[in-house]
Design a protein that fits this description.
- The protein has 15 helices and twelve strands.
- It is α/β, with parallel strands linked by helices.
- It folds into two domains: 24-51 and 291-385, Aspartate Aminotransferase, domain 1 (Alpha-Beta Complex), CATH 3.90.1150; 57-289, Type I PLP-dependent aspartate aminotransferase-like (Major domain) (Aspartate Aminotransferase, domain 2), CATH 3.40.640.10.
- The structure holds pyridoxal-5'-phosphate (PLP).
- Pyridoxal-5'-phosphate (PLP) is lined by residues 108-110, 113, 134, 136, 176, 180, 205, 207-208, 237, 239, 247.
Length: 386
Amino acid sequence: MTSMDAILQAQLDQRQQQFLYRHRTNVASGCDSVLQVEGKSLVNFCSNDYLGLASHPDIAAALKAGVDQYGTGSGASHLISGHSNAHHQLEEQLAEFTGRPRALLFSTGYMANLGLINALVNRRDLVLEDQLNHASLLDGGHLSRADYKRYKHNNMQQLDYLLEQSNASRKLIVTDGVFSMDGDVAPLAEMSALAAQHNGWLMVDDAHGIGVLGATGGGIVEQQGLTMEQVPILMGTLSKSFGTFGAFVAGSEALIETLIQFARTYIYTTALPPAIACASSASLQLVRNQHWRREKLHNLIGQFRNGAEQIGLRLMDSNTPIQPILINDDQLVSTVNQQLRDKGFMVGAIRPPTVPAGTGRLRITLSANHSDEQIDQLLEALDSCL
Ligand SMILES: *Cc1c(COP(=O)(O)O)cnc(C)c1O
């Protein structure tokens, strides 16, 4: 063993001893309500495919037609020759969907967040983030070289105090719309009032809300009735409720042009395959027109929460398809997860350092593709494991 490998192996051994070792599962089927894993059928309660669109035939057909028209790769970045009509059309559709002048596509949500924060702030500026923000937002803050502080989860008093303390010329406030490990939402009206009062800029990552929340799937800003003036920077992903891949930022002309000029994760990377943009356009149609998917999801969430309460599970304060069940002991999370697998259910097993020590949980996510029976069966299995 080389000295590098010896050092790395010691670190890996330590992680194993802490029961924090992460494993991957090989899935033999596509993302649907039932997954094929090692010859077994498992009901899928861990995807972010909230509207059940990842396996929709219309979207698959649009992807295939896109490949016939554009081939497989975009071949270059957006600023060279990678920006196709398909990308451009999708951007216009996303702008219309969000009711904003413009939208800009990124290859992933992770890259959108890194690029956004770093295009907007620099040394001597201020970035304030919720401590439960997604890793990509936290990493964006670290990379920015700005004065970077985290406030306690949804703690508006502390946010107010930190804004008050700073005399930076640019103050960027960054939050998840729906928090990815807890399923609760940010108090955006209050945040936008604080932003206005202290001359701050509010940025919302709505990866889990877009498509799911709001009357037309416009996400948390639609649900909470907020204008672009209140939330000037809106980021959404296409990899979750849209069932495809990629992400976008929607906002003013000046914001989008700033990103095209200054966001390094936009400039120095290859554009998404155009066929993926074709698929996302088809998906957007379904997101907008098939409201029954949101209604069904909402009903399933109610059914799950009622049932979980009846059997005394530790639910969190969430009305979204992210329904974590807290487990008293972090080490138990893996054991319960394995028991559920043996009973035919796949859920997320979330442990530190993804969440704070002592708050290990099963992360159960619901989809419009689930049936009432599948929810009841999951509750029965949880009851027998916990
Ligand atoms: C999933 C997620 C991202 C990352 O999006 P990708 O397209 O998967 O890179 C960013 N922010 C939040 C809140 C997310 O849940």
